[in-house]
Design a protein that fits this description.
Elements lengths: L1 E4 L22 E2 H4 L6 E3 L7 H6 L2 E2 L20 E4 L12 H16 L6 E3 L5 E3 H5 L2 E7 L1 E6 L7 H14 L2 H7 L1 E2 L11 E4 L5 E11 L4 E7 L8 E3 L10 E2 L5 E3 L4 E3 L3 E3 L10
Antiparallel strand pairs: 1-8, 2-4, 3-12, 5-14, 6-7, 8-9, 10-18, 11-12, 11-18, 12-13, 13-14, 13-15, 16-17
Amino acid sequence: MLALSVIGITAAAPPVTSPHPWPDAVGAPLEARFAPPAACAPIPVAPRSFAAWLRRLPLHPGRPPVRLFDGRLKDNQEAHEAVVAIDVGKRDLQQCADAVIRLRAEWLWARGCEEAIAFHFTSGDLARWMAWRAGQRPWIDGSRVRWVLGAVADPSYTSFRRYLETVFTYAGSASLAGELRPVSDPRQVEGGDVFVHAGHPGHAVVVVDVAANGVGQRFFLLAQSYMPAQEIHVLRNPAHVGSPWYAAAASGELVTPEWTFRYTELRRFEPPTCDEPP
């Protein structure tokens, strides 16, 4: 059950215009770290698309340990190949589906497509960033949610992060799965697609790069957060030691280090309705 709450008033702050405004957004881009498999090349993507943005995610140098939100080390340090240079916050909130939401929202913010930043709570209620920045806050009573004016208008990045933490609190893999459309042919996986198991618990991982060979066989990289909330990291492929790339398939099991999905659990965000092509 959702507890009765309303978020209080906060002061406005200047907006941040950096494409990566989160703390510690410094490091070589993902596309420079992981060369495609032999005889493969990156699939073409639109320059300002979510797929292109994910390819440029900054990575910490080397292979540092994955840390939890409170600074402790994650128990399983064998699941990752690299750690994304993006903060995890100070609370146990940015878990699996939340990490996907965070990346999608950050891309839309960077594109100036703020009107498209909206995610559903598990209750089914839509949480729109534009409503939040205008000062509206969710009033939650049991399973009912009403949006009421509860703060001054604040378009800042700090306010944006508070909005996301609220989404993380009340969203999850089930609500994320409901927002995405199934991919009819998982062999045509694209950057920004999400493997999501809508359960309690469930899990979600995001496709951060895709390459293909001369006959069209696609291969992809995955990134995740997990429970407790932890740094987003690029996953190893437990079936192929030395290569983090996974082969696309029409059906069957996708075995990742900490979860086994079905290939048919691949889903895709709808294109945003922005004024310019993605």
